[in-house]
Amino acid sequence: MQNHSKEAINxxxxxxxxxxxxxxxxxEPVKKLNICDEADVIVVGGGPGGMGAAVSAARSGAKTILVxxxxxxxxxxxxxxxxxxxxxxxxxxxxLINGICEESIQRLRDRDACFHPPREKxxxxxxxxxxxxxxxxxxxxxxxxVNYAAHVDAEELKIVYDEMVEAEGxxxxxxSWGTSAIVDxxxxxxxxxxxxxxxxxxxxxxxxxxxxxxxGDLLPSAGADFDAxxxxxxxxxxxxxxxxxxxxxxxxxxxxxxxxxxxxxxxAQAKELVATGGHPSQILSHxxxxxxxxxxHPRQDCDQCDVENLTSVEFxxxxxxKATLDYRRANTPGFEKAYLVLSSxxxxxxxxxxxxxxxMLNQEDISAGKTHDDTIALxxxxxxxxxxxxxALHVPYRCLVPKGVDGLLVACxxxxxxLHVSEYYNLIPHCIAFGQAAGTAAAQASAGxxxxxxxxxKALQSSLREQDVILP
Length: 472
Description:
Helices cover 30% and strands 20% of the residues. The N and C termini lie far apart (73 Å). It is globular, with a radius of gyration of 24 Å. The chain has twelve helices and 22 strands. By secondary structure, the chain is an alpha+beta fold. Mean pLDDT is 92; it is low at 1-12.
């Protein structure tokens, strides 16, 4: 029998009281939480929006704390294996989503850890060039022009984001799930956040809290109104279980698919794959040293705030992953020695709660090309909106500000957008841009001891321009 010293044995913590089950309900005891930290700006969620928010807040002079529930930063771009930054330039090749988003990509370029069309090809209308980059990745296809979209190395991006937060002195809590907002005695002002981790349930107090959870996890406890309705069949109604298959003999695969009968056989195999429970389409990685790797991005409708739905997507995703590999190995030339190398540690989520803000981006903003005096970002029209060539979506600061709640900004997929806008404009680059504006505004509100809705818009826009954000 193994011996244990007295020093290694911990007795029960008397400060903890168990929940009690009686009469068909469970009662939790009232408990005082330890305030483990304080900051000017607290960012909850370390995904694309959270990275933009935390880095910009810290660079703007605010003491910043970042809380992230997984073990890495980057969210969908890293743990979700949604390793694509799409639609960052207009149809003439002019970059519109710049700032921290482009800085991240540049850091990856320096390490040969991303793929995108060369700068001189962005916006090219040459049919042969459009065809070439369409074959490389449909994300680079603007329909009639070469679209600036970047495929990134998820592992390298984790390192990039670590370096960025460390360089700015941002206190980061990984493995920490921000569960609820802390409000003051009025119930209308957010003054901190509660989070849970292996260290227990703790609190952080701050002057401004930014919800970058993606799903608006803080909105219910903050008392903020939101819309969570999403019809089935929309892109944002689905969650994805991404996976990678490696060691594909690309020369053999391409020779077969481009042969006289290969194209027809490939199309027939796609139908068979669906019938057998697999996923028929893949994207080839063009990133250095990933030439034999295929990226799969299946998705299914899912209530992304329902734990049973999320669990079912995980199980179904791994069944689909197995069926895809088994079929390809047995039937598709070039896949004979392929193997599963990675599946996403976190689900690729697209839409759930959306805050009701001081302004809600809506279909008219797209169809009428509306402009706003408080614009904090410009988004290129996606290839789905080809009829609006040369225009850009103007994003007002007010869509980051929850109606009727102080001390809180929302900078992620939960930003104030209607279904039509959210369907196309809640992707990774968009969320980074939301975050960069929110972090800058939060730092200004903190420094001036004012509410986030009272930030000087001209000063905010000036600061964003100094950070290489493209504005009107």
